[in-house]
Design goal:
Length: 167
């Protein structure tokens, strides 16, 4: 805390960003196996490092009430793109399998492939092909802390976050 009403915030996050359009499909025919997401190209992870402040706008009473705070922070973010692999039946050999990823030159391998997909390539595949995308972020929010007699920490934060990544 810098003062009674102002606090410094240090932020370090590692998260995975998923599209709301992703539709996870079950594997075909196997009891155990990885589900897959048809049409997915990359997994996107972000590492965020930032600094900000929280400013208390209104305190809550000892028994009941709501404390309102303004929260703002900014910093650097590093986007990590990992190619998404699918395990498919190898059409050139009978009974064999292979791992493929989407590339524009062999995108025809994915046409009509829904019956030949055995599952996702797994978490361990594609890390050697990781691409880094540096960026920046800015976050601003209002935080509402509530609870009876300060026994339980409860809160709700609503705001806006903007991120920009380089190409």
């Amino acid at each position: 805390m810098k003062t009674n009403r102002r606090t410094n915030i240090y932020r370090l996050d590692f998260t995975e960003i998923k599209s709301q359009k992703e539709d996870k499909q079950p594997n075909t025919g196997l009891i155990f196996g990885n589900p897959f997401i048809y049409g997915k190209i990359n997994n996107f992870y972000q590492l965020t490092l930032g600094f900000g402040q929280q400013h208390i706008l209104g305190q809550k009473g000892n028994k009941n009430g709501v404390a309102v705070s303004a929260v703002y922070n900014a910093g650097l973010t590093l986007g990590l793109l990992r190619p998404y692999y699918l395990e498919v039946q190898d059409r050139s050999t009978s009974g064999g399998t292979k791992l493929i990823k989407f590339t524009s030159k062999d995108s025809t391998d994915f046409l009509g492939l829904t019956t030949g997909i055995l599952g996702g390539g797994g978490f361990g595949k594609g890390w050697s092909e990781l691409k880094m995308k540096p960026g920046v972020y800015l976050k601003s929010a209002l935080r509402f802390d509530y609870g009876r007699f300060n026994e339980l920490v409860s809160g709700l934060e609503a705001g806006v976050s903007i991120e920009y990544y380089t190409d």
